[in-house]
């Protein structure tokens, strides 16, 4: 099927793998080997045999939806399409009121309108081809999922194997009502070939299930943010470790409800200060032996980005003992860098306290936030590290 002498115009003919004829783009040269032909990308470009991308170009895939969908396209396998919108959506008690951009009512975002659609129908958008993840190793975006009928939002990466067969992998997923607020998200990407990113929103059982997206961008991985965590999406690499003999440990939770000293007590997070926000909680609300549990960070580098640790906390204790120790570990040496023993004013309301301590390490280190349970009721909350 080869049409004459190999060139950009006839290089990617239908080959033995059955892939359709495509013309090599301007960054590629034709390579012919027996009955098989491909496009070879020029130095500094990356491609899949037909299409080449400049590895030095930034901003590919970025979109703030101010006037259009940029290079993002509506996916053909979805039931409906995302719509561009500014201000509130058409439905009450669901969807955003403004875009994510400084809550600006005149700025646009995109959303999946749930009214008039059936349960489990979808809307999706797909990015343009992006270079291998050594250049674009992270996607960042904001999402809004508010309404009692919310189903889910998913992020997929699409690549091709050596035979040109599509390979799809789920990278991220969120479900259910998250409250009337925009949330930031970032996902690390690991792909040695060209790839696309695909967002899929799924309609829930009621019309109150509008899902919105805004401010999508790609870039280098933010290693300097290792250790930062608001616990809204995960524990960000912080591990809850039980100490001594009990199974007591920090738990990621929201809108915690405890019986503390005979009083029904509701505890909200610091980040959002509402029933939807997450934080880490360690609680002993009955007679227990003196014990402890801790949150342990990943290993961090000793540099200007990691010269201080700070976090918000709540501490309630009915006995004399109990508190919070902050420990640093480096070169197998552990030392306490801060102690907190005074209770916060009350557990309800937004009465979180802030603690910080300077660090002085010359080699890699880890941080442990140790909750020490006392001889009575002890409740410890940690948020926004």
List the helices and strands and how they pair.
Blueprint: E1 28-33, E2 36-41, E3 45-47, E4 52-54, E5 73-74, E6 83-86, E7 108-112, E8 122-126, E9 138-145, E10 152-160, E11 166-175, E12 183-188, E13 196-202, E14 211-219, E15 239-242, E16 251-254, E17 256-260, E18 263-267, E19 278-284, E20 291-296, E21 308-317, E22 323-330, E23 333-340, E24 353-358, E25 366-373, E26 378-383
Antiparallel strand pairs: 1-2, 3-4, 5-8, 6-7, 7-14, 8-13, 9-12, 9-14, 10-11, 10-13, 15-20, 16-19, 17-18, 19-26, 20-25, 21-24, 21-26, 22-23, 22-25
Summarize the structure in words.
- It contains no helices and 26 strands.
- The chain has strands at 28-33, 36-41, 45-47, 52-54, 73-74, 83-86, 108-112, 122-126, 138-145, 152-160, 166-175, 183-188, 196-202, 211-219, 239-242, 251-254, 256-260, 263-267, 278-284, 291-296, 308-317, 323-330, 333-340, 353-358, 366-373, 378-383.
- Residues 1-22 have low confidence and may be disordered.
- The strands form seven sheets. The chain has a five-stranded antiparallel sheet, with no helix packed on it. The chain has a five-stranded antiparallel sheet with strand order 6-7-14-9-12, with no helix packed on it.
- It has 385 residues and is mostly beta strands.
- It is globular and about 65 Å long.
- It is 0% helix and 42% strand.
